[in-house]
């Protein structure tokens, strides 16, 4: 267990400004404050070496939680333990244990070439020169930094900057890496590079990775386990596969045909959802009927030219989860 | 894969980190070469108008509260030089609101170095070099003309007083900057403090009546910046409504005020609400 | 295509004016501290001038009461019309938002002037607080005659027009260089000194007085206040107003000229 979160809560209080005439003038004299609860008593654990997805809609409390885990914010109540330390209290020791990349903001020195930022980090974390050289060499190769390592950060493209940020966070080999929307706004190639890198530092180097993202491709490719929160509460915690299994109560099969009218198709095991002359979609419950049985039934009775079984889509599952907003009772087994 | 971390004491660690971060700040400042001169000039003008102000007035009025031009000029010079000991090392403190609003403090909290240290090394305050040039120049020019019989002991006292005065100003500004973790913006408050110090700490403060003087000594401790040590050097401690020994100890006020400010600042970090969280 | 009459023009600009006005009120703490600050500084200023005058009946033909009142009124006026952040233009140029401003249906000059005007109105409470302080300390003097009062109000309006125009002119350096910190400081403190906000021209050294009186800055604060205190009569009074008006026109012309070059720069070089 490298990260342990128990009953974690964070409140923010802000001046309460009511709209209306002279709102500005009135606000000079009121001291009313509005308290909002961003994180509401969440608990979870993360094992050493895990790569966990931390998901939730905008404003769900993801960033607030990550910021409490990293020691940026002090919890209102509850406890966080990261590698045996309380992040905000043992801030400096914690800082050497973790790396963090926030997609929206760079941690690099804006006016200096990328290489200088790396050197400052080398010095700040008292790395010995040999380790620094080898590691920078490896990362340079993994992420193709060569072409822009001597460019000032302010002139880098988003994808380049992101790669720079990742290296800066991993140079001193922290045990834990927090990634807050690392692929937001990037093109397909850049996303791919970053995913490859994250997979490598997790699998190859045993770094524990906590990833928040809105990109379900990131999750499908990288995470085995996810924590989903909304309104500051945990909606689901567990295996990605189990989540799909729990949520996907029906699967679709699509059949194409040329020799007969597809609208005439019917099956005792599945229900027709839509049909036109050349194509029909049927839905069945995998708990009741196994997929091969449905396929066999259809192919044996109709001259079908093509058939495809649709994979359950994580995106849909998540969408359903966010709209219903009820916690999933059964929990996955963890990694 | 985890590295052996050399354990250093926080103070030694911060000294090391400040060297690293300062180098980065100056290197970044140098990447905009054109601004160098205009910034230094700006710094000199900012403080220079005050010198001009007092110069023009005393040319017409000769005396203020029994102080002649040469001593007033020396007092102003002391204030300017003390100010330099604040703005040169700590000038970036001015940008605390931006550091908080833009979430740069997130980054500082993620690094193994003191947060305050990272705030004051955010950028190299080029303008401060102008303040320093003017301040040290003013002391060098006006000290020999002041009614002081200079002895090595008095020179040492003067230097201690200037550094202490700088720390008093730093401490006050650090305290106010700590409030930024709670309030949206403290810029106006800090400019108010800075402006009040700039405009009035170079006067014989007893002229603001007994209560005025006492509040400028113990509540808003501006008197420690230049006036109290100046009364010692000029042999005017009899003017003070407080015991003379306090004036003799005034250079020690710097570390005290600074310590209070720093403790408060560090305490307030806990109230930090990172933007966009 | 809507007809662009004067009234629609003004309605269009009201938004910018309001933005300036509300931006002052939005930071309530800033305004409160500004008020507290002015109260403190007005008090200290009154003391400084009174102490300066001990042992003098008149200096340069000016008595203690007038000098003290001038210092208080100048401080109030300065607080309202010379805000530290006098224009959002440099920041908008730096962030590249200026392109958006330029496609709005009002000229950038009127947008900025309206906004700066709004800011000044929002800062009126500051001036009021300073004035009340001055009155409480018995440090404010009313004009000698109603005529002096009326003329000095006209003169203040011209002074404000002068400040708005010069502020915008200086802000426009942002189109040529992004490093304007030093220039801004130079301008802020230079104009504070040369406008008579810190010291009235009466007390300036004799060799400096003619130089300052030929610069545009004295028309901002010194001119209206010298009328207020009745130190100008007849031809001198008319001449002062004429000079103020001339400066506003010259500066406005200059503004158009600089603006045209700035547009050229943005259009050709892409900001």
What does this structure look like?
The complex is a heterotrimer of chains A (335), B (277) and C (271). Chain A has 335 residues and is an alpha/beta fold. Chain A is 34% helix and 26% strand. Chain A has 2 domains: 45-245, Rossmann fold (3-Layer(aba) Sandwich); 249-311, no CATH class. In chain A, a hairpin with a 2-residue loop joins strand 8 and strand 9. Chain A starts with a strand and ends in an 11-residue tail after the last helix. Chain B has 277 residues and is mainly α. Chain B is built from 13 helices and 2 strands, in the order ααββααααααααααα. At the B-C interface, helix 2, strand 1 and helix 9 of B face helix 2 and helix 9 of C.
Keyword list:
heterotrimer, B: 277 residues, mainly alpha, two-stranded antiparallel sheet, 13 helices, 2 strands, disordered N terminus, C: 271 residues, two-stranded antiparallel ribbon, 12 helices, 71% helix
Q: What CATH first level of the largest domain in chain A would be assigned?
A: Alpha Beta
The proportion of residues in beta strands of chain C is under 5%
Main beta sheet of chain A, described?
6 strands, mixed
The count of domains of chain C is 1
Number of separate domains of chain A: 2
- Radius of gyration of chain C using CA atoms only: 20 Å
Oligomer state of the chains in this structure: heterotrimer
- The fraction of residues in strands of chain A falls at 25-35%
- From the spread of the alpha carbons, the general shape of chain A counts as globular
Q: Mean pLDDT of chain C, rounded to whole units?
A: 86
Question: What percent of residues of chain A adopt helix (DSSP H or I)?
Answer: 25-40%
Give the SSE order of chain A as H and E letters.
EHEEHEHEHHHEHEHEEHEEEHEH
Shape by Cα distribution of chain C: globular
Walk across the major sheet of chain A and give the strand order.
Answer: 5-6-7-3-8-9
How many separate helices of chain C? 12
GO molecular function (chain A): ATP binding; ATP hydrolysis activity
Subcellular location (chain A): Cell membrane
GO cellular component, one term (chain A): plasma membrane
Protein name (chain A): ATP-binding cassette domain-containing protein
